């Protein structure tokens, strides 16, 4: 640990550590295969489960290759007019052009005459390849040229899947944005500096991006499916763990800056003392996540695989990149409360409330 600490904190090698880290991250982003997370997680059920066995039996039926989009035409509760019925028949004929069973695309009026239903059989595999596009085509075709007040709404399997997909559209980005904002606020409040919080946030953000790329690249050859929900959990975990490690390291670094004039020596001491705790803490979390590889549900195995890699990358960022970035930027990062050598409580300074609390616990641990 001391040799690593010396490399990332020394005057001549700190810059080198940053350059090597930046080059390595850029290379991984450039050359690792890119992939997209599945919008819908797989069932993940073991082969022994009854639900999985029933699903496999259903796939043998001819209807397994067919899905359906159901268009419902209505006039806000009012009875449909003759013009409405004629328009619906025209729309049904247009919808039949995209159906695998056009003869089945026939309007069905409700008993009270207030609604009409048109079922459009579709090829299941083609619809699954582009659920959103299929749903949009059905909606556009059904609504084209309808009389004023008559509306067409999509339901059925195609409509349901499209709405679910649309509900989660952008959720990953929103989750990441909220996570970043929460972490930024915590760092600003903790460090009381308008500048210092940027460095840990950038380092942790880069670690999150790298974790996503590495997980996606390794998952496919290993037969592991990473869906959007796992990607969101991975980001939250990397930001949470990375921020936690950053808080510990910066606290030790700040403490050493009040004792040592040379910031490089202060960082060496900080990494040497905080590094084992960070490595042990993160290693324990990573090992516990790896045990999920023994789970029966494939979703749990994928979650453990992805998050274990994310934690390991967060540890590497906290011990190899963050110290170099902090020491290169100098003491000015802590502005306006810049720590100076000789201002420590043990050197005549006034201890803060948390230090007094810590000293009290150390003096009377039983209490």
Automatic annotation (TrEMBL):
Organismal lineage: Bacteria, Bacillati, Actinomycetota, Actinomycetes, Micrococcales
KW Membrane (keyword) present: yes
Species of provenance: Clavibacter michiganensis
UniProt keyword terms in alphabetical order: Cell membrane, Membrane, Transmembrane, Transmembrane helix
GO cellular component, one term: plasma membrane
Top-rank taxon: Bacteria
InterPro entries named in the record: MMPL_dom, Mycobact_MmpL, SSD
Gene3D superfamilies for the chain: Multidrug efflux transporter AcrB transmembrane domain (1.20.1640.10)
Protein name as annotated: MMPL family transporter
Keyword Transmembrane among record annotations: yes
């Amino acid at each position: 640990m001391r040799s690593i600490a010396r490399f990332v904190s020394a005057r001549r090698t700190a810059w080198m550590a940053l350059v090597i880290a930046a080059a390595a991250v850029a290379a991984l982003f450039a050359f690792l295969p890119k992939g997209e997370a599945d919008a819908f997680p797989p069932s993940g059920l073991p082969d022994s489960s009854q639900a999985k066995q029933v699903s496999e039996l259903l796939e043998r039926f001819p209807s397994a290759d067919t899905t359906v989009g159901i268009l419902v035409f209505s006039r806000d509760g009012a009875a449909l007019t003759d013009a409405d019925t004629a328009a619906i028949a025209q729309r049904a004929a247009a919808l039949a052009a995209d159906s695998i069973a056009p003869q089945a695309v026939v309007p069905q009026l409700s008993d009270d005459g207030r609604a009409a239903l048109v079922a459009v059989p579709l090829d299941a595999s083609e619809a699954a390849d582009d659920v959103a596009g299929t749903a949009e085509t059905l909606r556009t075709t059904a609504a084209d040229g309808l009389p004023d007040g008559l509306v067409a709404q999509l339901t059925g399997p195609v409509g349901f899947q499209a709405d679910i997909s649309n509900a989660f559209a952008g959720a990953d980005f929103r989750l990441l944005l909220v996570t970043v904002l929460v972490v930024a606020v915590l760092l600003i409040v903790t460090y009381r500096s308008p500048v210092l919080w940027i460095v840990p946030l950038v380092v942790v953000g880069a670690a999150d991006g790298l974790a996503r790329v590495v997980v996606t690249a390794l998952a496919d050859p290993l037969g592991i499916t990473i869906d959007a929900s796992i990607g969101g959990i991975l980001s939250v975990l990397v930001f949470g763990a990375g921020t936690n490690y950053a808080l510990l390291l910066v606290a030790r670094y700040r403490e050493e800056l009040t004792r040592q004039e040379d910031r490089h020596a202060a960082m060496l001491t900080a990494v040497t003392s905080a590094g084992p705790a960070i490595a042990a803490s993160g290693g324990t979390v990573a090992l516990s996540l790896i045990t999920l590889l023994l789970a029966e549900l494939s979703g749990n195995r994928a979650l453990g695989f992805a998050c274990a890699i994310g934690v390991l990358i967060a540890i590497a960022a906290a011990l190899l990149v963050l110290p170099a970035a902090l020491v290169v930027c100098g003491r000015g990062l802590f502005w306006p409360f810049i720590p100076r050598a000789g201002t420590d409580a043990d050197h005549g300074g006034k201890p803060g409330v948390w230090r007094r609390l810590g000293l009290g616990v150390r003096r009377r641990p039983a209490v």
